[in-house]
Phosphonate C-P lyase system protein PhnK
Amino acid sequence: MTKPLLVAENISKYYDGRVACEKVNFELWPGEVLAIVGESGSGKTTLLKCLSMQIAPNAGRVLYSLRDGRTESLSDLSEAERRFLMRTDWGFVHQDPREGLRMGVSAGANVGERLMAVGERHYGRIRSTALDWLNRVEIAGDRIDESPRNYSGGMRQRLQIARNLVTAPRLVFMDEPTGGLDVSVQARLLDLLRGLVRTLGLSVVIVTHDLAVARLLSTRILVMQQGKVIETGLTDQVLEDPQAPYTQLLVSSVLQV
Ligand SMILES: Nc1ncnc2c1ncn2[C@@H]1O[C@H](COP(=O)(O)OP(=O)(O)OP(=O)(O)O)[C@@H](O)[C@H]1O
């Protein structure tokens, strides 16, 4: 692919006149993992929501390269195109897996229903694909009929990932996917995510306040402070040689390893 998958142009969002994010610009290329980092309240989640059509920005636009090769502004998409993105071409991994899962149905159904949403009707195939995905996210196959209510936090998060990836999305948004988990569970999940992202060639926009997560997963990084992007570049470069004083502070306080 010779053009970006997603382009953010001057994205701004205000709440009661207060800046949540302002004039954010970047390009996301196929296979790239972009980490949005910054302290609490810097506008990371707001930006992610604007990018993924969960909220409308007050200004600016998001261009997306559709599977048929057209590049369209998200705000100009038809309802059917939006649905296709939400159900198939995009994934969204929430920090709290309960937001991304249906807790009232089995783990297998959580994965299977995304497949059904894209037209798969054959029960045997749905079940075997669900099993395969549980396996890929290291959930034992004999837990397929259990409700995710019985699952641990780490298992729920892995199930949420399976549910998202089963439709072979090209772009996955992640909001603090390892937040709220024990450190050892986080490490394992990060490993798994890194493996999946690489094998599947996924493009990812990930919000994290944890620079170690950004370092492990991302190719590029975007540092936000008070709603604005203050530094951006290749992750290794930015973390090794941060230019903005705020980034220097972030890096020196967090990455003393
Ligand atoms: N629905 C809302 N109504 C009013 N203000 C909001 C709303 N959502 C976010 N904000 C404000 O926008 C700013 C950015 O918030 P946002 O949640 O995007 O930051 P964040 O960097 O994701 O923070 P955190 O890491 O704590 O989740 C904050 O000042 C926040 O109070």
Observations:
- The CA atoms of residues 85 and 169 lie 9 Å apart.
- The two ends are 37 Å apart (CA to CA).
- The chain has one domain: 6-254.
